[in-house]
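Incident log, structure service

09:12 report received: a user says their structure output differs between two submissions of the same chain.
09:20 pulled the input from the user's history:
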Amino acid sequence: MVENSLGWLGDPPAPLRSLVESRAERVARQTDPERWPVVAVPARIARSYGVPSERAEALLDGCRLFFLSADVIDDAQDGDLPVGMMWPQAINAGNAFLFGAMAAFAASAPGAPVANEIGRAGLALTSGQAMDLASSWQRPMSETEVLSSVRQKSGASMQLYTRMAALAAEQNHDIVDLWGELGGIWGTMTQLRSDLLDLADPQSRDLRNRKATLPIAYALERYPAATHEALQAPDPLPLLTLLRSCGALAFVDLAIDGMVLEIEGLLGQIPLPEASRVEFSALIRQASPSVVI
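09:34 re-ran on a clean worker, output below:
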């Protein structure tokens, strides 16, 4: 469970401890570890290579904590923090999660260049987030820019998790790179699917924050007047109708399908037991069905 990962944070003072525990519990309630790519993919990598259980658990703790770090800081930047949590405390909690992730990853792969791995992922993540924060309905990014932002943000995080899993399994440089490339595409695919599902949510965070995610960027580039009109509607139905009719949803769905094929192609290049390959194929497919909204 996510809350059990907090031991890597040491013994924080009561205000910080309360904050990080509440955040961890919130994520734990919302995620299924068997389906959540943040832990499901590295867990399967670790099992495939027989990583010792103590190191495997440290690996998954590192993945959870790095996710929590990025998640709470992202919510602070987007104005999505729960009532009672102020952004300075959220940023501090994010830093605590990050340093805890570094300790956990170091325990999972002794001798691996953990600081370099986290540094590279963190710089890519912040670059992607900077692009995301700069974009809105009034200043949308192009489709290429949106994809670049998602690859740097969600793709870089997932790439870190898969690379660290391969390092924990003591794989050679080429295999680590293959797992990293696979993870980057997987993270991008997962975020695009999440953005589609968010649009169908009556409490859509992206619509509330006026985010120009890929389907909206697609529509704004081709039908700016109609899209802006739909975006002003009090409910998401006119927007969803437009996105469906103009091909924006199908465009993103097709992009996701292409990424599934890329992931499967990379998986075919990695030596794995057949049972593990079957597990990965099932996980890829369950994470990326055609989205109908």
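09:41 both user submissions now match this output. Likely a transient worker issue. Closing.
09:42 reviewer note: The chain has one domain: 2-286. The first helix runs from residue 14 to 30.
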